Amino acid sequence: MPIFTSDGIDLRYIDEGEGDPILLVHGFASNIEVNWGGTGWVKTLVDDGRRVIAFDHRGHGQSAKLYDPEQYTLHHMADDAQALLDRLSLPRVDLIGYSMGARVSALFAILHPERVRSLVIGGMGARLLTMSSNWEAIAKALEAPSADAVPDAYARDFRVFADRTKGDLRALAACMRASRTALGPDLLAQIACPTLVAVGTEDVVAGSPYDLAKHISGAEVLSIPGRDHNRAVGDPRFKDGVLAFLAGRA
After folding, report:
1. What is the reported pTM?
2. pLDDT digits (tens, 9 = 90+) for 113-126
3. Is residue 55 part of a domain?
């Protein structure tokens, strides 16, 4: 897999297909394969005639592992996305982010509106407007001897997922403890590109997609019936909704 460098940090990426470029930004404790490869997203978008770019966040997948929480701010991660687009000489892309990747993508669209043709905020609704109050419990769950040793069910789910994706638990705990940027209504109002907010109807992590969409001018909502936070990612109805959105945007 090819590597690019952002602020001196080596990050792994993929670049497949031809056509309109689209950048995929994965969620916490995930990676290219788990979020986009195994779920069929890369194949779906390439088959739709698109150039698909995705990268492993710092501390995730096959990218460099860092253990200082201050190296995992949303601004650092948005800068990583910008560095990849610069490396590939791509002035403008469609952008899909899921969960934590949706936070990164939304901030990128605010900071660099000229580089985003359209935005898909996946697996993130009203929770995007606030910071999680469980971050320390999740970080401690990642540092626990095992998932069975985590008493909090919500935090345990994050540990189980990190174990399944074979993540570096120490790096992920540092990422969870990073300083967070709250994307309040004033910031979200700056998003000017066509935007789709896609959330599973059983997703208790994301919050209401409608309560988020009302703060973004012209944003559309895609509800994915019967899917929770993890199972919504690969749902064919999510993919079909995104393809229709991409076909209809300016």
Report:
1. 0.97
2. 999 999 999 999 99
3. yes
